[in-house]
Amino acid sequence: MRGLILCLLAVAWPAAAREAGPVLATRQLAVAAHPLAAEAARDLLRLGGSAVDAAIAAALVLGVVEPQASGLGGGGFLLHWSAAHGQVTSYDGRETAPAAALPSRFLKPDGRPMAFPEAQTGGLSVGVPGLLRMLELAHRRHGRLPWPALFQPAIRLAEGGFPVPPRLAAALRAADRLERFGETHAAFLAADGSLVQSGGVLRNQPLAGVLRQLAAEGADALHAGPLAQRIAQAVGEAAVNPGDVTVADLAAYRAVAREPVCGGYRGYRVCGMGPPSSGGQVVLQMLALLQRFELGALAPDHPQAAHLFAEAGRLAYADRAAYLADPDFEAVPLAGLLARDYLAGRSALIEPLWALGQVPAGEPAGRRGHAPVLPEVEHGTTHLSVVDALGDAVALTASIEGPLGSYLGVGGFLLNNQLTDFAFEPQREGRPVANRVAAGKRPRSTMAPTLVLAPDGGLHAVVGSAGGARIGHYVAGAILALIDWRLDPAQALGRPHVGNRNGPTELEQATPAEALLAPLRTLGHDLRFVPMASGTHLIQRAREGWLGAADPRREGAAAGD
Q1: In contact, 152 and 159? CB cutoff 8 Å
Q2: Catalytic residues
Q3: What is the reported pTM?
Q4: Rounded distance, CA 120 to CA 380, Å?
Q5: CA distance 193 to 201
Q6: How far apart are the C-alpha atoms of 194 and 206, rounded to whole Å?
Q7: What is the distance between the alpha carbons of residues 536 and 554, in angstroms, rounded to a whole number?
Q8: Helix, strand, or coil here: 476?
Q9: How far apart are CA 320 and CA 408, in angstroms?
Q10: Of 257, 263, 251, nearest to 52 (Cα)?
Q11: Which long-range contacts (CB under 8 A, 24 or more apart) does 181-190 make?
């Protein structure tokens, strides 16, 4: 698995060297992880579609052209902004554990936890998919175009073919034992029987057929009937780690509309996704912890700015590890974690001239005695941002978790491995782990689709990212770049990454962040150079309309009018 991740990320930074400004649109704009997805969203907007319509079309296209990251077999979170009502709504399409799941799911017979690569592939890691149910719920409430119309761009690409992107080709090259997963392996073969190469044309007729069925019948076609039976059979009869997702599990899945979590930062209001995602908590805590420091007086690349940002991440991720989980199963002390007095006390721990080292979780009001766990590993994720002609907006982050998910394929799409986002050990030091496995439970995520509202109450920015447990850093960093340093979206996303998840401070390797090594070491940081291919996609309000930019580390693009 480590080799797969490094291979994927090795293609990332050379693209970041290009210097391109943001795209300006006067009416409507979409930014997504592939140009074909951004163009599909723009075309739906031109037809009079809403931001939700455009986001659904883009998400479906990404499932065709970026199948290693997201798709029908995964889940996601969506934030919607209604300009007319000044209201943020969040939707939870996170996968759930099957009814047969037990807390000991990822323990070996000797009681030790499985290694992540051992657990990822096969049926044991597959959660009940939730993406399509969530998109259907959002469309029912905010869509303007007919549901079948949203599927047409993805159907055309699946049938007619598309050039294989470099990241997909890299994922396939690095995938160990892919041949053991026959349906998946066959879906990515060229005419000569070899794996498709970057730039080669890939067609996916099985997926085109599934998309036609879903366009006609809705999400019920995925969660009941023959397709649901095929999913359950693929999971239960997997050659590696047979699992236990059933047709009944698929039929029982429900997407949920949840209250967003919001907080203030220098006169702006930042709204994100609450539990079972930790993304909103991490971003809001990091911003609140940094608010007492005059970051705007520092250059964006100043070592002191990097130090303070890393220390804020250290504290936020310590709380994340101890307290964040599915709120339908655990008492998550979210109000306590975001309380002003609590955050002021945590911020006071930050030393401007010295790194704290590993810190314990805080003691917010409403806490329970949970043991902390390490962050999950997650790299098969995508994000898209959309603003329509009425000023409504969508931030959508979707994922199948690891690159190529569980490696299991059905109907031309990949099934997720999101259950590996649960804690493998249900107890630690005699205390229950909040994010332990349970039947019907949603695993913790760090996906952080985010909306930033300006002091005048209007929409200021739409942002989110791929990048696994580091997503909180990427999103918080983008917001700081916009508000504190007044960078445009392209400049904000082109900055090298720094972060800390309550361990070593991480610097993005082979970037200008390497110049921070000596000054941060002087401040006491334990440092690591690591690949950090974020995949952040950002839209910001401008005087003339909207500015948008895609993360230069990936293959994304902005498209609008």
Answers
A1: no
A2: 381
A3: 0.95
A4: 12
A5: 14
A6: 19
A7: 9
A8: helix
A9: 30
A10: 257
A11: 181/121, 181/239, 181/240, 181/407, 181/408, 181/409, 183/234, 183/408, 183/409, 183/410, 184/404, 184/407, 184/408, 184/409, 184/414, 187/409, 187/412
Take residue 126 and report the two structure tokens written for it.
Answer: 């597959």
Q: CB under 8 Å to 416, separation ≥6 — which residues?
A: 73, 74, 75, 95, 125, 126, 127, 129, 399, 400, 401, 405, 406
Contact 364, 336 (CB under 8 A): yes
Q: Is cis: bond before 276, omega within 30 of 0?
A: yes
Of 176, 186, 185, 163, the residue nearest 64 (C-alpha): 163
CA dihedral over 273, 421, 417, 123, signed as positive or negative: negative
Q: What span, in angstroms and rounded, lies between the C-alpha atoms of 261 and 404? A: 31
Of 130, 71, 122, 129, give the one whose Cα is nearest residue 235: 122
Amino acid at site 53: D
The CATH number covering residue 99 comes to: 3.60.20.40
Task: Work out whether strand 505-508 and strand 527-530 pair parallel, antiparallel, or are unpaired.
Answer: parallel
Low-confidence ranges of the chain (pLDDT < 50): 1-18
Task: List, as one string, the DSSP characters of 392-451.
Answer: -EEEEEEEEESTTTTS-EETTEEBP-GGGGSBS-SEETTEEBTTB--TTPPPPB----EE
- Judge whether 280 lies within some domain: no
**Chain-centre distance of CA 176, in angstroms?**
24
Residues 6+ apart with CB under 8 A from 319: 281, 285, 337, 361, 362, 364
Three-state SS string across 165-219, please? CHHHHHHHHHCCCHHHCHHHHHHCECCCCCECCCCCEECCHHHHHHHHHHHHHCC
Whether 321 is in a domain gets the answer no
| Separation of alpha carbons 510 and 441, rounded Å | 39
Q: Which domain holds residue 95?
A: 2-257+375-499+532-560
Q: Please check whether residue 515 lies inside any domain of the structure.
A: no
Report which DSSP code applies to 271: E
Cα–Cα distance, 274 to 279 (Å, whole number):
7
Overall domain count for the chain: 1
Residues 6+ apart with CB under 8 A from 231: 73, 129, 222, 245, 250, 410, 415
| Residue pair 169/197 in contact by the 8 Å Cβ criterion | yes
Count H helices, E strands: the chain? 20, 23
State the CB neighbour count (10 A cutoff) for residue 357: 11
* Cβ-count burial 112-129 (b if 16+ within 10 Å, e if not): eebebebbbbbbbbbbbb
State how far the alpha carbon of 27 is from the alpha carbons of 34, 46, 333, 386, 391, in Å: 21, 10, 40, 11, 8
Radius of gyration of the chain (CA): 22
Q: Give CA–CA dist 201/517, Å, rounded.
A: 43
Residue 262 lies in a domain: no
The pLDDT value given to residue 56: 98
